[in-house]
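request received
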Amino acid sequence: MSVEWTTGTGSHPEPEDEVAARAKALESLLIEKGLVSTDAIDRIVSAYESDIGPMLGAKVVARAWSDPKFKEQLLEDASAACEQLGIGGMQGEHMVVVENSSRVHNTVVCTLCSCYPWPVLGLPPNWYKYPEYRSRTVLEPRKVLREEFGLDIDEATEIHVWDSSAEIRYFVLPERPEGTEGMSEEELAALVTRDSMIGVRKPRTPEETR
Amino acid sequence: MNGVHDLGGMHGLGRVDVEENEPVFHKHWEKTIFGTMLATLGQGLYNLDAFRHGIEIMNPAHYLTSTYYEHWLESVEKNLIANGVIDRDELDARTQQFLRDPETAVPEREDPELADNLSQLGRHGASTKREVVAKSRFEVGDRVRTRNIHPRGHTRLPQYVRDKQGIIERAYGAFVLPDTNAHGEGENPEYVYSVRFDGEEVWGDSAEPREVVYVDLWESYLEPLKERAD
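response:
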């Protein structure tokens, strides 16, 4: 079946109360038709508000920093490695981890929509979803990182940008900060930020967390 | 389609607006849209490719000035209407009712089985990887050129990497082809590859030093470089 779509409602941003009313209208009709339920919506919303977020990706990164065997598995098949920690699911069915080093810095973007590895990072922040980051990161990644995130990538370091245009979901294994020898996985995880796993900032240093 | 959603390389859109300590949802209606989308997608009332396409065909000016969850709402509405699940008139009438009286209660309904199914979908996902008998056309290390095509429907070949030379970096196996699946024309799984493009190949003199862009592309978006040279 080929669908003829109607065009949108025009160039004027709709007032927020209209969007809220449309959302409520849609939910009401679908509840009456038995196609959605209050508990289904509440539970999935609560999962992404409280349980699924960058703290899970931080656990994965901290384990990779601590355990060379796990790191090898993570780089080989990230979804399988994450599943060992009970982490995985929707929008992370086929995850790939790209590793930062002194030679290469990796950054992740989705120019066509806002694909993002939900099971390890949760739902994306607005800046990842909006046109500014999506348009510029493939064209001028060094400038975006420097001007928008305060991250200066040395000219000698290659910059690799991963455009998530298919169903593979990328996240970055940042370099382990100096001065973290002897830290536990839990202490290391506290250094790993969402932005460091998107590749737009470095992890925190031990000094920054004190 | 050569739509406004295809943003890679566009100029003039401005600074990245980073909100410190951003909440997962900003408004209650965002939660409603998020949950409603996943519940309806999860029950197969439309597929993810049709959902993405529903956003792409928004009025371009509206696309750029509306919020992320408004995009979702637009597409969920369009897909459910196109598939006969809801009716445009009943939706508009109900919207007017909530606008006239914002305190009108949304009906409540419990459905533990649906709630469980949706949680399971969140936990386990729904892969679009498929086993195919056909042999893949390319191997890691092959040099390829992206095709210079401009489909009017849904595609995942961004404009900024059309008619460009690259190298197959990784081979991921076969996945449902969005170009047909978005339009109800079947899954037609094809091999997907991560293709490596040098910055200069994509952006010419405007490329930054030592820049590489990797884009994940379906096999039919690619042709072997040697055939092209003939």
